[in-house]
Amino acid sequence: MSKITITIDGEKVEATAGEMLMDVCRRKGIFIPTLCDHKDLMPYGVCRICIVEWDRGDWSKMITSCNFPVKEGQVFRTNSEKVIRERKMIMEFTLARSSKTPEIIELAKILGVESSRFPTQDEGCILCGMCIRACSEVVEANAIGFAQRGSHRKISSPFYHEATDCIGCGSCSYICPTKYIEMKEDADTRTLPIWNVTFEMAKCKKCGQKIAPKKQIEFLKKRAKNLPEGWFDLCQNCR
């Protein structure tokens, strides 16, 4: 890819054509807040807190930096009055939806938001979609999705019943930025209450340590056909 020059906050910056603006900013040490970005997921732009101002000369436009590919000569402002004002507004909406989540409260403080003027709730889920994207893009199980629209939109298993395609890998819980998706384990099972699923855990045939849900192992066996016989019978330490 060809090298280009763009301008960020008045400074000329070298970038690669098509590179996402957020990545360029991060490389330059410019703080860009985000709640829906992850290196293993495709850029989505849903939380919108990563907005910056794209200066078009006679006018400007607010864009999400995580999924904006840069081109030669473009000019951006990451800390203008307009950016600060709109980020605070977005943060107020997010804080109102997830008013008791430590990660949200901390980011709000960083952005200068101490409270929200909107009716508050303790939903926890901020509808960033990271759990859905991890399930589809990384795991490829496609077990969960969005349900309903507008203010009633939520993350859900199909028809709010058991997520029959869930394999219990826990990726949704690991990646959730607000820790909203709870995963419970005991000696023999793993449960994801939000998806109404419980899985029997496979154990290492050598040491007896839990490895993963049996359903997850069966799912992986179908995709990893070149591994040695009995690979999934042992934990990582005993292989």
Question: What is the strand and helix layout of this fold?
Answer:
Layout lengths: L2 E6 L2 E6 L4 H7 L23 E5 L4 E5 L10 E3 L3 H17 L4 H9 L19 H10 L5 E3 L6 E3 L14 H5 L8 E2 L3 E4 L4 E7 L6 E4 H8 L18
Parallel strand pairs: 1-5
Antiparallel strand pairs: 1-2, 3-4, 3-5, 6-7, 8-9, 9-10, 10-11
Distance between the termini: 41 Å
Low-confidence regions = none
Strand order of the largest sheet: 2-1-5-3-4
CATH class categorisation of the largest domain: Alpha Beta
What shape does the CA trace take?
globular
The average pLDDT score comes to: 94
Find the structural class using helix and strand composition.
Answer: alpha+beta
Query: Could you spell the SSE succession in H and E letters?
Result: EEHEEEHHHEEHEEEEH
Structural description of this entry:
This protein has 239 residues and is of the alpha+beta class. The protein folds into two domains: 3-110, Ubiquitin-like (UB roll); 130-233, Alpha-Beta Plaits (2-Layer Sandwich). 23% of the residues lie in helices and 20% in strands. It contains six helices and eleven strands. It has helices at 21-27, 81-97, 102-110, 130-139, 171-175, 214-221; strands at 3-8, 11-16, 51-55, 60-64, 75-77, 145-147, 154-156, 184-185, 189-192, 197-203, 210-213. The strands form three sheets. It has a five-stranded mixed beta sheet with strand order 2-1-5-3-4, with helices on both faces. Strand 9 and strand 10 (197-203) form a beta hairpin. The radius of gyration is 22 Å and the shape is globular. The two termini are 41 Å apart. The model has no long low-confidence stretch (mean pLDDT 94).
